[in-house]
Amino acid sequence: MEVDMQMADVNTGLIAIGAGLAIGLSALGAGIAEKDIGAAAVGASAEKEGFFAKGLIMTVLPETLIIFGLVVAILILGLAQ
Amino acid sequence: MLTPEGMVKIRILGSKSQMKKVINELYGLKLLHLTEFRPAENFDIGKPFKEADLYSKHLVKLRSMVSFLKIGGEGKKIPAKANLKKLQKIERVFEKMSAGLEKLNERKAKLGQIILNPISRIATESDKIEQAKSLKTFIGVAGKGFIDELERSGLSYDLMKEIVGNKAAVILTVPTKSAKSAADMLVKYSFEERHLPETRYEEAIAELEQVDKKILQIKAEFGQFRKYNESLILNMEHSFTELIEKTEAPLSFVTSKRTFAAEGWVPKDTYEALEKRISNAASDKVNIEVLETEEAPPVKLDNPKVAQPFEELLKMYSYPKNYEFDPTIILLFTFSLFFGFMLGDIGYGLVLLSLSAFLFFKLKGALKSIAYIAMFSSVSAIIFGIVFGEFFGLEIIRPVIHRAEEIQTMIIVSIIFGLVHISAGLILGFITKYKEHGLPHAIFEKGSWLLIEFAAAALTLGILMKFQALTYSGAALMVAGILMLLKGEGIKGIAELPGLLSNILSYMRLFAIGLASVSLAVVVNELGVKMLESGGIWFVPAIFVFLIGHTVNIILGISGPFLQSLRLHYFEFFAKFLEGGGRQYFPFGKIKKWR
Fold it and tell me: Assuming Cys at both sites, which of A37, B308, B367, B570 could form a disulfide with B363, CB separation 3.0 to 4.6 Å?
């Protein structure tokens, strides 16, 4: 992807920053949420091996946040065109 | 297929003389899920047959052999009784060898202690240490500096010493009157008291070598023992497990002086065959009747062979109750559909297909099922790879949908998947509620959600297409749906309303995960191709970039879609109709795993 320097004005830059923030912050949020769940899930599966699969699923639950972030990022990028 | 198999509860009542025959027949049939029988008047809980003690004694020994020798696999069947003599002999040999090994290991530990005790370098128990009232002896380890300080102190003493590293092993004898000052000095150099060892250091080392040799020898003997007796031990373990199950079966029966009774569940369509077989076996001295009961029967999933491995995914969630839907057959299609849609690459699909096919023939049990599911899903990934025209991220054929560019289309397709999936879940929920509590409940609790979903679609379309009639009717339906929900689930339902939107939006992961996967593949390819174009020595790192990049992407591309597809089913789909918590059908005669 070649970036056309003449096209990239300040507005486009701001839009790009917005998109980056949307996905970055939502990923951060998901990470914070998954940290606690993951720790608890590992603890639980140490107690009872059968819990591993369930724990894994629960750990990826907050990943929805990133999906929403991504969608918002795509919508924001749509403004640039 | 979509619901668990129907069950009937039966009671077997018979003459006690026939109990053994009935048990044998039931065990062979593997159909009856025994339930605990509450003792009534004149009836007591049955007692195990008297052989149970003997069998369990042998079984414990057999299992310890299996664990210790790490024997695996299945052997040919050998009847247990015929070999009881041989078994006793094997047990004796094994016990003798185990005792020998244990003794050697104990000795080894002891010798290790002696070697680690620095005192062993200067004296042993057999050396006479002078004992007198007027003398005080210190035996132990102190810092090296202690010896210099002792010399400088001017005390009268007798010292045996050996420097080991920066510590000194000392045996210090001082007159009682200067014992206190000597003790203070020792404490300063962090003195630790030690015992006099049994043997000297050099002897201990030599003996340890001997012991190690003997341990190796006995381990080789164990190897021989294992080679000769492996299949026999396995068979006997198997047979004794069976015998014990049979001899202990009366524990879930009730018995009176002359009769016995047992209760349990059998699949409806096997009942007649079971009745015939049991009656025949007991020469018609039993009575079998079907009981009318409100109890929840155990759940036996009933799926065609192609779908059975997918039951494993359902079990991870929960067993359905007997009146609930068993979504295994739906999982077969939707799970692999979602997985393939997310991975969507011919190359990655082929890698996963060969890997999972290999594992499918290697593995056993639940993991084998997972490999089967992966095989199924990888085929779907290959099909979607053709749709998206991707091979390791490269565009090798003209794609039907170019998923990195046609984001709008991909989002819409994902949302449509979501709408269909969630609606299907709600419809299944509607039927479940109808079966459980009747039509009004079903309409207010699940129908309302369906109506709201439909209304939202109408509303959106109406606004988008500027078609006012559709907009207004959509809004009216929405209000009606919300009122119905309020009646059905109360204020809690209203609070969950936004959840429906986030549930549907959640399906956008279908395209998002795929986008991430294809982007990573493209990055790897571009980097590698650039290196290749530079020519010469860049050829080598380019290979590494391709190899590592795609390996990482395959791992992410398998685990991500697998977990996310599963999650969509568990939280968005199952939650609409499946409560779970059913009891698994476990017929008498099916062997429980003990390790």
Answer: B367
**Two structure tokens written together for B204:** 């201990």
For residue B571, the chain A residues in CB contact (below 8 A) are 61
Residue B294 to residues B8, B39, B40, B352, Cα–Cα distance (Å): 11, 19, 19, 47
- Whether residue B338 contacts residue B376, with contact meaning beta carbons closer than 8 Å, is answered with no
Q: How far apart are CA B418 and CA B572, in angstroms?
A: 9
* Contact B584/A at CB under 8 A: no
Of the pLDDT bands very low, low, confident and very high (cuts 50, 70, 90), residue B78 is low
DSSP state of B400: S
B45 domain residue, yes or no? no
Measured CA to CA, the distance from residue B47 to residue B50 in angstroms comes to 8
CA gap B62, B334 in Å, rounded: 46
pLDDT bucket at A26, cuts 50 / 70 / 90: very high
Q: How many domains does chain B have?
A: 2
Give the CATH number of the domain where residue B190 resides: 3.30.70.2750
Three-state SS at B581 = coil
CA neighbours closer than 13 Å in the CB half-sphere of residue B134? 2
CA atoms within 13 A on the CB side of B389: 11
A interface residues, B as partner, C-beta within 8 Å? 53-54, 56-57, 60-61, 63-64, 66-68, 70-71, 74
